[in-house]
Amino acid sequence: MRGMLETPEQQLKGFIAKFAPAMGRKIRECRAAMRERFPTANELVYDNYNFFVLGYCPTERPSDCVVSLAANSKGVGLSFYHGATLPDPHGILEGSGVQNRFVRLNDAGTLSEAAVVELMDAAVAQAGSPFEKAGSGKLIIRSVSEKQRPRR
Fold first, then answer.
1. What CA–CA distance (Å, rounded) separates 52 from 36?
2. Which site in 16, 33, 57, 140 is 20 to 30 Å from 40, CA atoms measured?
3. CA distances to 14, 33, 46, 112 from 105, in Å
4. What is the helix (H) or strand (E) element at residue 29, kind and residue range?
């Protein structure tokens, strides 16, 4: 029942602490860049079997997530929930799924590269719900798996 006594922010810190220090730092830096880019977004957190995910959504519905940070022991990616329908003139999207595409993040600086910013802008433009113009979003812990792949 540990999670019941902690705030969402404390739980989030615990999830990130499972990673090697360098990876944890990378996740925190990428999260800070995403909070700056999407200050009014709700952050939906999933500490699942394969990935630790922070989804950025204009609502509290997972299906409305525009982009997500997805991390495992090997790295961090920027995932586009409807990436298969995004224009990708620079050819940087990876993946071959029916819906999802992603960009590997070398570091938080990758999030400010022109081609990545264009993709995020396109994802926001095609989102069903707009982000609020002012205010701040909530941090919502959506799912924590008992069993997980090693994070280190």
1. 20
2. 16
3. 22, 12, 19, 11
4. helix 21-37
Give me the residues paired with residue 90 across strands: none
Q: How far is CA 39 from the centre of its chain?
A: 13
Structural domains present in the chain: 2-129 (3.90.1150)
pLDDT of residue 1: 47
For residue 34, what are its two tokens? Answer: 């995403």
| Residue 47 β-bridge partners | 52, 144
**Angle CA 37–48–30, to nearest 5:** 25
21: tokens are 């220090």
Strand partners, 109: none
> For 18-77, how does the pLDDT look when each residue is reduced to its tens digit (9 = 90+)?
999 999 999 999 999 999 999 999 999 999 878 999 999 999 998 899 999 999 999 999
Query: Residue 144 and residue 15: Cα distance in Å, rounded?
Result: 9
